[in-house]
Amino acid sequence: DAGVIQSPRHEVTEMGQEVTLRCKPISGHNSLFWYRQTMMRGLELLIYFNNNVPIDDSGMPEDRFSAKMPNASFSTLKIQPSEPRDSAVYFCASSLPLAGGSHNEQFFGPGTRLTVL
Amino acid sequence: AQKITQTQPGMFVQEKEAVTLDCTYDTSDPSYGLFWYKQPSSGEMIFLIYQGSYDQQNATEGRYSLNFQKARKSANLVISASQLGDSAMYFCAMRGVSGNTPLVFGKGTRLSVIA
């Protein structure tokens, strides 16, 4: 099992540019989560999907952020235009469907370290 | 709303000793799950241990155990026989169990194991 795959691992861009982060969840997992980690705010949820449908995007900072999940094996997080305050590590995580008695831990990808200059 | 509080920004422990990392939580959900994750300097998030709110026994996974005190709303992580490789950030997290919902994380505790 390859685990959750994220690309790119590192991204350095200039303010105003469009940034697209990609995530491939573990096969068979039906929930996908995008988190952001910063020193100031820690780990916070941006958006999550169940069965490819966005359930809660209240954590998306503003209209510059958008996320899609066109199928069960791929999701993107787009920032347009990017700003220096968007610099952070962006994690994608996935989990199995809930089953009775299951704890359903979330499996995290390696993260994308984004730097906006 | 759910909230996780980790009051220890940093901890030191001697190699081979045990250490307890504190975690308190707040929730109005009747059922919930509590998780601990480890984040080494390489940055990945590694799942360590889980405790369900209705589990009768404290969870254990190898050298990790969870000291769950429901009335006090605490879920402390105990690492026995610390190793140098245990040096990392440790995050306590929780979520409700009704649906595949996101995790709410604490700010983390940085553990340093000293030889």
Structure, explained:
The complex is a heterodimer of chains A (117) and B (115). Chain A is an all-beta fold and 117 residues long. Chain A has no helices and eleven strands. In chain A, strand 4 and strand 5 form a beta hairpin. Chain A starts with a strand and ends with a strand. In chain A, 36% of the residues are buried. Chain B has no helices and twelve strands. In chain B, strands 2, 5, 6, 10, 11 and 12 form a six-stranded mixed sheet that branches. Chain B is mainly β and 115 residues long. In chain B, a hairpin with a 6-residue loop joins strand 5 and strand 6. The mean pLDDT of chain B is 94. Helix content of chain B is 0%, strand content 52%.
How would you sum up the global shape of chain A?
globular
Q: pLDDT below 50 for ≥5 consecutive residues: which ranges of chain A? A: none
What oligomeric arrangement do these chains adopt? heterodimer
Biggest interface, which chains?
A-B, 26 and 22 residues
Summarize the SSE layout with pairings.
The complex is a heterodimer of chains A (117) and B (115).
Chain A: E1 5-7, E2 10-13, E3 19-24, E4 31-38, E5 42-50, E6 53-56, E7 65-71, E8 74-79, E9 88-95, E10 107-108, E11 112-116
Chain B: E1 3-5, E2 10-14, E3 19-21, E4 24-26, E5 32-39, E6 46-52, E7 60-61, E8 64-69, E9 74-79, E10 88-96, E11 104-105, E12 109-114
Parallel strand pairs in B: 2-12
Antiparallel strand pairs in B: 1-4, 3-9, 5-6, 5-10, 7-8, 8-9, 10-11, 10-12
Keywords:
A: 117 residues; mainly beta; seven-stranded mixed beta sheet; globular; B: mainly beta; four-stranded antiparallel beta sheet
In short:
The complex is a heterodimer of chains A (117) and B (115). With 117 residues, chain A is mainly beta.
